[in-house]
Design a protein that fits this description.
This protein has about 200 residues and is α/β, with parallel strands linked by helices. It is about 35% helix and about 25% strand. The mean pLDDT is about 95.
């Protein structure tokens, strides 16, 4: 069974470049390193690409369901707790400042609907994730997490500015290395090296 790396987001042009699509953006950038050829998989309701990191097969997944149903694309591939150990999910996180990322394992969804859907689908929280910060920060770098549903929606559905996309591309280099380490050397080393 290959490793499975998922980039969370919403399908469709109107969501391209939004903060809620951070996982999708980063996994697409990662795929470019491996000349990933994306194909539509109707059964999984996702865009998928198969690559190899070293000799290890890896399936990259961009769910084409909306965020709240992301688990539907993962469920057929991750059918046990053992297989969940080879799953990595990349997603946007309002609890972290923009430009930062953190690898975590076996945590709750923190209210993220896409993650919640995956936890329900694979029936465990025991899988790895890369949380990518999207919260605005003050000039001193202090996090300014939006409060209230309207403000939260405005931030997560807002589009990245060109300079923010450049910062995300820079961050992607670190995330790419973390993904490669996760597949080749395991989660512990990925966490030690990149957190």
């Amino acid at each position: 069974m290959s490793y499975v790396i998922v980039g969370l987001g919403n399908p469709g042009q109107e969501y391209e470049g939004t903060r809620h699509n951070t996982g999708r953006i980063l996994l697409t950038l990662f795929g470019k390193l491996y000349d990933a050829e994306w194909k539509t998989d109707g059964k999984l309701s996702a865009q998928i690409a198969k690559i190899k990191i070293g000799k290890t097969p890896v399936t990259l997944i961009l769910p084409d369901t909306f965020m709240n149903n992301s688990g539907k694309s993962i469920k057929p591939l991750v059918t046990s707790i053992k297989l969940a150990e080879k799953l990595m999910v990349i997603y946007d996180d309002l609890d972290l400042p923009f430009g930062s990322s953190k690898i975590s394992f076996n945590k709750s969804s923190g209210g993220h609907k896409g993650l919640e859907s995956i936890i329900k689908a694979v029936k465990t929280e025991k899988f790895a994730r890369i949380r990518v910060g999207i919260s605005p920060t003050s000039p001193t770098g202090k996090i300014r997490k939006p409060q209230g549903d309207d403000k939260v929606m405005k931030v997560i559905m807002g589009k990245y500015k060109p300079e923010e996309l450049l910062a995300l591309k820079k961050l992607s280099k670190k995330i790419n290395k973390a993904l490669e380490t996760f597949v080749s050397d395991g989660l512990q080393l990925a966490m030690t090296g990149f957190n």
